[in-house]
Amino acid sequence: MKLELGSPIIRDFAAIKNLSKYIDTPKQKVSAEVVKSRHPLVQAFQDNISDMIRMQEEVLTLFQDRPEISVSNVVLPKVQTPVIKNFERKLYVTLENHPYLIDHSLLRQPKGWHEIADMEPVIPMTMIFEQLAEIAQAEIQGSQVHKIINVSVFQWMNVAKPFEKTVKAEWKSNNHAYLDIENFVNAEVLLTTSARPNLKFNLSIGDLLPIERTPEEIYDMHMFHGEKYQGITEVSKVGTKGIVGKIKGNGGKGSLLDNAGQLFGLWLQLTLTKDRIAFPVKIKDIEFFGDMHDQDGIFECTCSLTEMNDEFAIVDILLTRNGKVWCKISGWQNRRLEIDAALWNISMSPLYNRLSEEIAPQVFFFHQAYSRVASWDFVLKRYFNQAEKQHHQKLLPNKRKSWMVSRVAVKDAVRNLLKQEKNHPCFPITFEIGSDEAGKPYLIGDMTKNIHISLAHKGKDAVGIAQSGKPVGIDMEIIEERSSGFYDLVFTDNELVLLKGKDQAEWTTRFWVAKEAYGKFMGTGLKGNPKRLEVEKITEDSLWINKIEIKIIKHKNYIIGWTL
Questions:
Q1: Of 181, 233, 381, 546, which one has the fewest beta carbons inside 10 Å?
Q2: Residue 491 in this model has a pLDDT that exceeds 50
Q3: Cβ atoms < 10 Å from Cβ of 502
Q4: Residue 16's pLDDT is what?
């Protein structure tokens, strides 16, 4: 059938035409008797009209008879619109107003250590983004934090001295703020006044591994945190792609979410073989399904790896309490540091660990195994006190590493000697190394009296020695061929006779090292005339100058010698 648009739907219906003669015009009054005697369709129609009229009359009557009621204006709740698009707030964090931050110090020092700066107390990333969220939340009355997104941290926020900074904020929309502490951190905060639905998530940790740790082991061997930030109460499962545990906030601001990050960091330490230590630098998204401030109780925490490379490790984290999701974190990113087992062990337990290798009695060798700035920063902070760090900063950049590696080696030698001779294990920071006008190193510290030291460095490596009661000298050189001019400048006729028939690269290096070590022993050096310090004889692995024995060894591609 063809549909003709615009035409009347009914054009010729005889039955309807017949009905028209039974319908009265509005001007005519139709009695009930008439309606009853006529066509049934008309009767039904009239009944409907009558019902409608009655309903209308009832409504009008009720309205006219209504009681007088005074109705006040009702204001419905709504999200408050920020008054100012851009605003600033001061952030002031000290150990006085946040004393628990001493338990978020990067370095353990002797109990009661006098210099707080040597402990490196820093604001946790989790505390700072909670503070930024609170600043935004305070601007809109009655709001709650729904999300914190795009968190980036650029450097440690040290509180050895008061951390006083300006937070600059900008409203991107009515409930979306961007907050920034220049050069330190920025983040975005989304607020809400509505309840969030509780969703279900399923994070995988991969195949289970036979690894267990108690809380005591975790905070003794793996985590630097003090009491107020020690909140891992159980490691439930360790997998190839993640970890499940139980955590709690323990008194420090941000401690609950910091412990979620600790659990992730623990998984890296337990499962990786290289660059196992990592610190948080970014978070993509933190979504709260309850009040951000409601952090009481025990939470189950699941960390699930999403990405890993040589620089970073990224996970998603889920926190649930009593079976309900409290928080879901997407894209928690840790930067992997070039910190090997030796560096981490001395960071965690410096009394009984060291970076250098003892290659002979009292002789310690340290190799520059690290290439990243962050790793050397860790070495500097662990081994050197404030005065030494200030001296390090004054050195030319190309001198700093050689200064550091040689002093790490000699500090390890001193610590070893104190432990052996005085049963006094000590932290490297508890004594200092100074130098006299001639450049000869000496020790500063009550416990190091009557201990003599010497050090040397070459390229990326260094050696150090410590000895009680008498001076000592040490030197190191690379084994290599020497020019004819070198022979004429350095060796006497008697020395040339002793060198005859020997491997020239090795033995000329031995003789040169012996002269340098003897010059350090005397505290004078060579004084520009190597021939005045003559090697008189050779006995097995020793050379003799002025009746002083210089022990000589070959180590890697070096000749190392020291006075006995």
A1: 546
A2: yes
A3: 13
A4: 45
